[in-house]
Design goal:
2 copies of one chain form a homodimer.
Chain A: H1 11-29, H2 38-48, H3 54-65, H4 74-91, E1 101-102, E2 105-106, H5 108-111, H6 114-133, H7 140-154, H8 159-168, H9 176-201, H10 206-233, H11 236-239, H12 245-248, H13 254-258, H14 260-281, H15 286-296
Antiparallel strand pairs in A: 1-2
């Protein structure tokens, strides 16, 4: 208790252990690839393979900042990754964004078939809620609050609604307010809820919950601006998904509305605001500060 | 208390009130059609419109038999109808069964578009779990048990898995065991869980839960055999969906494996067994007996 200068290793050194936890927890949740119907279960595992797992890391980083034991965070970390994976599988379908490449490999409907991809997305969504309902280390009231938050963030008023607006906005020029509203739902809501789920696990008081919301909102929007910038300046090999798609689909993006330099400037200001919010939560918000830096520096 | 011969009106007379409860609860759950994104919310309501609501009635009939207050059953009744509606929207997609007609009207992807239909299904599934998490009249432990049961019944080991097996079985001849296993998942699991959810609301003891499982399994399988029979003998106008599809898609059905008469005989035996199970639950299982009769007599 008196060792106030006690050396705590940086979050960076703990990331591999968190990713290993996630991998084990996901492996335990997903039925083995040989389980009947085996093609469906193979495809579910294929859809969850790879990726940066930023959303799971946000759960762990927020939880660590709030002093939550990792085993209370695993179900939430898995649930957000499962929702994210399902949304990518469905967004990539021919009836939606029609993309062939994801995480550097063929999309699920290319590697398997369209029917399987639809069912994989459906089953991964179900599994996200099942993971929270089956969580061992958290009590029933917390599970219910987590399920409520995740459902709200990912449903028609959140992620799915954002995707619907995005589809309807092709070939339209949005203003910056409309674009921010779209992305607050399409990508922002799920990023925000990672912080909220960890807050629920921590039984965080209201003031902390407000600061977590501010951190999560800033990171979510900054992340999307960056995504638009990377879509324009990076190549397909680096991204692991088709680059330059926004322009082909004639979508409004932050660089198309603000210019590339201003868009990058806006993202950087949001990362700074996120760091401010993190410092207001705790004198030792190093995991959240690390995460803001880590996301800010990504090239894909 | 002493009026043991008190006249209880038959369940039949209470069905309209239960359906009205369901309609009101669904209306409160679904965002208004004008809510942004309005096209998505219109389509979600379109997808939930109509239908026989047999699954919701099973929740209410089981709950009434076990003495549960209707307000404790509404969230489960809505949740099973939402899961059922989402599964129909996705099953009808061109990449799946490719059907133009459902409940006597154009399917969602015909009335709207494919992207909207994919997102409608996704959002309806989310809403099913949100409905249970937000339920007012049941405690957190019961909500968690309901969410767990519904997720298991509808995921890759239940309904979605059954649909995957069904897609993979086109042009194959199944044996009767394989066909029953397919349908126990594709339609049976969701029908079974209606009884289980009401059992959770009632905190039913183990013996009752076993009898409910037997009732639900028999009804589920009998229902599907009937579906196969009706697909063969009824016309499209009566069914409200394309008749004769099984033969066109070269699917194994109960009539194709057993013959029409034997299939009907098997369904009737299962309805009898369901009534036996109902009587073992309570001396006054009239709602469950009514429901078995009602389903047995349906012509669409």
């Amino acid at each position: 208790m008196s060792l106030i200068s006690q050396e705590v290793p940086a979050f960076d050194t703990r990331v591999p252990a968190y990713l290993q936890r996630l991998e084990r927890a996901m492996d335990a949740l997903l039925p083995p690839a040989g389980t009947d119907p085996d093609r469906l279960h193979q495809a579910m595992r294929y859809a969850c393979d790879g990726g940066k797992h930023l959303r799971a890391l946000m759960v762990y980083a927020t939880g660590e900042t709030l002093g939550v034991a990792p085993e209370c965070l695993d179900p939430a970390a898995c649930a957000v990754e499962l929702i994210h994976a399902y949304s990518l599988v469905h967004d990539d379908l021919p009836g939606m964004d029609n993309d062939d490449l994801r995480r550097g490999r063929p999309t699920v409907h290319k590697a398997f078939d369209i029917a399987t991809a639809i069912l994989v997305g459906d089953a991964l969504q179900t599994l996200a809620f099942e993971a929270l309902a089956n969580a061992g280390a958290i009590d029933a009231e917390q599970k219910v609050r987590m399920i409520r938050s995740l459902a709200h963030a990912s449903g028609s008023l959140g992620m799915v609604g954002g995707q619907a607006v995005d589809m309807a906005s092709e070939n339209l020029t949005l203003n910056i307010g409309q674009l921010e509203s779209l992305h607050a739902r399409k990508t922002g809501a799920l990023i925000l809820v990672t912080c909220q789920l960890a807050g629920i696990a921590a039984r965080a008081p209201e003031q902390v919950r407000h600061a977590l919301d501010r951190y999560g909102r800033c990171i979510g929007l900054a992340f999307q601006i960056q995504d638009d910038v990377l879509d324009q300046i990076a190549d397909t090999a680096t991204l692991g998904k088709t680059a330059g798609k926004d322009q082909v689909q004639n979508k409004s993006t932050f660089p198309s509305l603000l210019g590339l330099e201003q868009a990058q400037h806006r993202a950087n200001a949001l990362f700074d605001e996120a760091r401010d919010a993190a410092r207001s939560i705790s004198g030792d918000a190093e995991p959240l500060l690390w995460l803001a830096d880590h996301i800010q520096q990504r090239d894909h």
